[in-house]
Amino acid sequence: MKKIASILMLILLGGLLWYLFIKPYDYLVSFKAKTFPGTINQVIKTWNTSFPDAKRVEQDGLERLKQQIVFGDSVHIYKWKIIPLNDSLSRVKVYVKDKDNSFMNKVSIPFSTTDFEKRTKKTLVSFHEKLNEHIGNFRVSISGESQTATTYCAYIPLKGVQIEKARGMMRNYTFISNFLAENKVKLNGKPFVEVTRWDMEKDSIEYNFCYPIIKSDSLPEHELLHYKQMEGKKALKAVYNGNYITSDRAWYALLDYAEKNGIEVDHTPLEVFYSNPNIGGNELEWKAEVFIPIKELQ
């Protein structure tokens, strides 16, 4: 009997030592979100910029992120784990630690509701509300395997962070459309964006803002404008409805679809835009077709 009691005491002591000195977090919050990991990843990063003295969110793939938030004299570390449950549902776990007061939190939390616990709950309830609001502002429908169009186009090469893609398009929209119209270049379809490089960790892209045109022997020249032939490619396709600022949500949806279906793809999305944001209106009625090229077999 004494031996059993000694073993139980050692187990309890080991558990206590682990809880106080080894456990890597002070508090855990878990919730579900009706979207895929890429959307949650991007909303965390955007939300992070709302805090004073915000540092860049670190990430290990789409589904693991580390964030540092300063509250007065305290520095809180948020470690996010995003677990996809199905095509439209994810579980989010947030492991929170007070960088300088972790030991006292672990001692106090089992016996009282601490200020740290209250602040953590309030902060993550606010995040959850913002996430749900964002989810309601767009739709993505996966169409499956398709083909991009073969076309000749006029384009301007651009680069920047993902969230500024639409701004880059708008800055050049009037110039391209007016220049082509003034020089009587015949258009041959809807404007589109061809991403040529995507750094998923830094959320930066290099891309071409393109107008399909009828090729001729006397195309006008301009230092900012280039021309090229685009060959059609086999690709995964989605339809995006919403503000074009966040049309990259469809990129993540397609990557998620590709992974679940064992399809190898190139991380070079192509977006075709069917609506003119200058006209305004209900953003959920704005439409873009989004493609992720399927890797060709060697």
How many helices does DSSP assign?
A: 6
Mean pLDDT: 88
Gross morphology is: elongated
* CATH fold descriptor of the largest domain: Multidrug-efflux Transporter 1 Regulator Bmrr, Chain A
Helical proportion, percent range? 25-40%
The CATH top-level class label of the largest domain: Alpha Beta
Question: In CATH, what is the homologous superfamily of the largest domain?
Answer: Regulatory factor, effector binding domain
- Tell me the count of domains: 2
Q: Please give the CATH architecture of the largest domain.
A: Alpha-Beta Barrel
In total, how many beta strands?
13
* Low-pLDDT segments: 13-22
Class per helix and strand makeup: alpha+beta
Largest sheet: 8 strands, antiparallel
Beta-strand fraction estimate: 25-35%
- Our Rg estimate from Cα atoms comes to 25 Å
Widest sheet, order of strands: 6-11-13-12-8-9-7-10
- Succession of helices and strands: HEHEEEEHHEEHEEEEHEE
How many angstroms does the end-to-end distance come to? 69 Å
